[in-house]
Every structure is written in structure tokens, then in C-alpha cells.
User: What shape does this take?
Amino acid sequence: MRAAVLQQAGQPVTIEEVSLDPPRAGEVRVRILASGVCHSDLHLRDGEWPRQGPFVIGHEGAGIVEELGPGVDPAATGLAVGRLVALSWYAPCRRCPACQAGREWLCSNSGASRHRLADGSTRVHRSDGSEVYPYCGIGTMAEATVVPVSAAIPMPQGTPPEIAALIGCCVSTGVGAVLKTARVAAGASVVVIGLGGVGLSIVMGAVLAGAATIVAVDRVAAKLERAVELGATATVRAGDDPAAAEARIRELTHGGPDYAFEAIGLAATIEQAIRLLPPGGTAVLVGMTPFGVQAEFEVFPFVDGSRSILGSNYGFAVASVDFPRYAQLFLDGRLPIDRLVERRIGLDGVEAAFDRLRAGDGLRGVVTF
Assistant: This one.
């Protein structure tokens, strides 16, 4: 099969022919139909998250089940050959204390953090027999993949593959940050800093939550326009004068937002989100930074004003519950995920898609097969 392989951080992705072993016990083979190009892939590609490769890159994917491994029970799992599944990049073990407490996004035994399958191995090999590891345990920028059962989530009938793919990462991360991490109350005021796929998903989540004021912030006019189409009530064009932007945000939110979501992963915008908070306000940090990045805030007003900071990994997703729920919201016309997709590309277009991500150009690119 063809796959996008990252040999070493800082080098271009290459398209290679690799082999894929059959699924073992508790695994399924999935023919990939769509894979989103996410900023987390770019962090890996550019060496901001040092990892030992080589990798089949990609972690936001969906496809059709082609083969069930030994012991996989269709009745118990909902998985069957021909079924569309969205892939979870943090396949839970469902046995550790975090999983048992319903906090699967904190699973301590997932192979995803090691970029391996649950048994510590990989099913992908080059022609010389050398191993290639699946990024986040799923490696979706390939024609097929083998994943644990807990990573393959059956989607409702009629869900388009591209929609299922985006639910597998950016939608669950953004919508879940609103509905599950922050639990934004109806009538609240929200600001969203950064309008990539995750930031725009936060906007959609705020609409679902019934937020009264949703202020979208970005440097790119086209992204601000898309945010309004998705339900933002006001926009602020970010620029070279952060103080002016912050003054405008405070004006629009009557002194500061109840919730400030940061969806870029920059120290400057993380600090800005915290500065914007009024007494009792909450900053929700969703964007992922390069390793080693630190941010600062003044402690006294933070404590004196009973302000809060929440870290939101994967929108606190319990994939087996949340993925089908978000898909059904799309099918019901309440979650317009299709508005996030700007362009469809082949595997050969991955490097150009990374260039667009670096430049902050456009919305989600999706590799289609």
C-alpha cells in the first residue's frame, strides 16, 4: 500500500510503498477513505515534538472495516466488514484507573502515546522488513491501517467519510472543549482565539451550548467570515497591537469573557487568554504548543479574582460515546462540520498542505483515497 512516511523530524514526508500485516487478536484492518491534515502532524513533521521514527504520519482518519482480527465479536463491538468507522487517536485500554473512571483521554496504557499498537508492535513494514510506526497508533495517511478495536468507532448510517475523519480529531477536540471540558452554560460569553479546524469547532460547540456572545479572533479575514457563518456573534481582527484587540474583546463581552478558548498553542495568545478574564472567568487551553514552551501570568489578580485555567486534551473525548453523537448532530443539521473542509488532496499533496498550515492559510485540508 501507499503511505506518507516521515523518516526523521525536519525532513519532508515521502510517499512509499509499504506492507501491512493482518490484524491480530483485538484488532481490525481499515481501508482509509479520508485523513485530515492536522497541526499535530506538522509539530511532528517540523521537529517541534521530537519522536523516534520512521512514522506513517496522520491521526485524523476514517474508513471502511476490511478485516476483523481473531476474537473480535461484531455483536459486542458493532464492527463488521464494510462498516464506516472514525478512528480515535487515543485508543483506550479500558482497564486502567482513568478508563475505569470514564476518563479515557487520560488512559495510562494506550499504545497511542508510544506510537505503537497495544502490544508495543507495528503492523507496517518496508520491503526490507524494517518497522514503520503508526503515528498515535493509527497512522491514517495511508491506504489502510490496522488499529485496536477501541480505536475504531462505528459511525451512524449516512455519515460522509470526511466528516467522520474530522470528528476523529479537530471536531471532538473543539466541540468537546466547550461541552465537556468547560461545560459552557447557556447565555455565557465566549472568546475563541485562533480559527483553524479546532478553533472553528469551538465556535460550533459554543453555538450548541447556547452561548449568548461568541467573539472569534484571528488574523485572517476569511477565517473570521467563516466563523460568523458558523455562529460567531462578533469578530476581532488580530494584528500587531494586542492591547487594542483586547480592549475590543472586553468591549464586546462587557468587561471580559466568561470563557476564553486558546486554540493556537502560542505562549503570547495563551497569556492573552488569561489576561482577558474577568473575575470568575475561565481560560481553556486547547492549542498544543511545541515542547518546552512556557507562559506567564500575574498571580495576585488571578487568585484574587478566582479565575481558572483548564487544560483540554482531545475535548475529554470518550470516543465510543462522543463520536457517534457528533456525527448525529451533523446529520441533524446542528453541527455543520462540512464547512471546515476547504480542499481535498491526494497523498502527494501532504507537504503543500503543511506549507499552508505553517502560513495559517485556509481551513482543513483532507487527504482522500
Q: What stands out?
A: The longest strand covers residues 27-36. The radius of gyration is 20 Å.
